[in-house]
Amino acid sequence: MADRDRTRENGERVRIFDTTLRDGEQSPGASMQKEEKLQIARQLEKMGVDIIEAGFPVASPDDFAAVCAISEEIRGSSICALSRCRSEDIETAARALEKAKNPRIHLFLATSALHMEKKLKLAPEAVLETIDRSVRKAVELAGEVEFSAEDATRSDRDFLARAVGVAISAGARTINIPDTVGYALPSEFRELLVFLRTTVPGALDVVFSAHCHNDLGLAVANSLAAVEGGARQVECTLNGIGERAGNAAMEEVVMALRVRKAFFGLETGIRTEEFVRASRLVSTITGMLVQPNKAIVGANAFAHESGIHQDGLLKDKRTYEIMLPEQVGLSEGSLVLGKHSGRHAFRARIETLGYRLSEEDLSSAFARFKRLADQKKEIYEEDLETLLSEGSATQEKDRYRLERLVVTGGTLVPPTATLVLSIDGEERQMAGLGTGPVDAIYRTLSNITGSGARLLSFTVKGITGGSDALGEVTVRLEEEGRVAAGHGADTDILVAAARAYLEALNRLERKKERDKRAGLVQKASL
Q: What's the topology of domain 400-518?
């Protein structure tokens, strides 16, 4: 208890460092294009996120462009770029951050014996020299520097302390302790933070941070333990997306600090009522659906079926709810837009959702909205977000575009799909059979495009209620080791299925082109 009380003396605020656009994007199939990253960055800024890690600029031209664009537009959050301890990386990160109001370079280097010997092939002293040289260079170029000791929780504690001390001495003002492979237990992680803060010279003058992975399902628990140990920054992602089992989920960390404020004595600057909207936006863009029983933002997070629970709730919500649905954004009414709504009202509403469209893209989106409004009596916010994301413009032209689709079938007639596609601007038509209507569509799409992609998953959900609900299909495809997600939305679920498949195919095509142009650069994992 005494240790926990001492951690409160250094401040009552925990910074939230969001890495959805960097570590989250490294989830297989979750790669995002520049415009998609901008949409999420706007939402993160609106939520009050302290630091947005916008990407790893040296990894690809597209990542560099995304960091540049976010740096130029976002002014309410600090913008961070990841960098290895290499001169080329540091210089590239600095260039990408040139227009940022509050830029930060995030350096990392492994400190565990396993990583130093097998991956880096560097002696411990060489690692310390590299940290010193790299941090000093980054400070010259960006001012604000964060250093991460990769695989910290499997590092020798004394050597880790030396590495942290070198980084602080060289000018790093934030020290991140990553549980890179999700190995630590909460009590161990808390103790490690206490050890470093009480052992390393200058430790009390910098901010300690935690970056936890979820391999053992302990990312949030370890992040909170780090806060108990004195960490005042938590690195996390929306929906907990990230490599392998993912990262600590921002919504879970923040709500734990809020609900248990009497225990932690700390707070964040996050506007928690934006969580559900942010979760849906990330899910729609990445194609990674949120499981129903996911804490805070899952469909069942505030659902009660048990009669005993329902009886208790009717008497007092506090019997079975430790937070209000309104606190995470579930209380908003339906969106009052319909077929009689005008362009100005449409623009104003989508801007509140974080979308900034050019006149050309606005006209296209408004036309899609009008078509949807003719099919539905009520249009909800979820409908709009899906419509906008499903039709968002990209910097690269789609190779495949659906022109027409006819599906026939029934109990006595084999399902048949007839498709007309525009492929590289030229129309092509083909028909094919399948075991069901969706199977017929996908077999025909595979044949007409000549794609060898393998369908990994297919998910259907209704965006809103009613028989005229906008349905959304999400698919994940794999080809030659590349994974891409696609989603399509329409009141006709078969049309949505075709659009989802084609979007995933187009993303695979763009990945192939980027790989050819720039070569593969392996993205680093903290």
A: Double Stranded RNA Binding Domain (3.30.160)
Q: What angle do CA 487, 492, 494 make, to 5 degrees?
A: 65
In this predicted model, what pLDDT tens digit does every residue of 362-421 receive, in sequence order? 888 888 888 878 776 667 666 777 677 665 544 457 899 999 999 998 888 899 999 999
Structure confidence at residue 463 as a pLDDT band (50, 70, 90): low
What six digits make up the tokens of 397? 């032209």
Question: Minimal CA–CA distance to 474: which of 465, 482, 462?
Answer: 462
**pLDDT for res 522:** 47
Residue located via tokens 């990583």: 115
The CATH homologous superfamily to which domain 2-286 belongs is Aldolase class I (3.20.20.70)
Q: Between 87-96 and 61-73, two packed helices, what is the crossing angle to 10 degrees? A: 40
Give long-range contacts, CB 8 A cutoff, 24+ apart: 204-208. 204/10, 205/168, 206/168, 206/172, 206/173, 206/174, 206/175, 207/15, 207/173, 207/174, 207/175, 207/232, 207/233, 208/174, 208/175, 208/176, 208/177, 208/232, 208/233
Cβ atoms within 10 A of the Cβ of 244, count? Answer: 14
Which tokens sit at 269?
Answer: 């600057």
Q: For residues 320 and 313, is the Cβ–Cβ distance under 8 A?
A: yes
Whether pLDDT at 428 is above 50: yes
- Please provide the distance, in angstroms rounded to a whole number, between the alpha carbons at the two ends of the chain: 31
Domains of the chain, by residue range, sit at: 2-286, 343-390, 400-518
Are 227 and 266 within 8 A, CB to CB? Answer: yes
Residue 476 to residues 36, 457, 510, Cα–Cα distance (Å): 18, 5, 15
Predicted confidence (pLDDT) per residue in 5-35, tens digit? 444 444 489 999 999 999 999 888 788 889 8
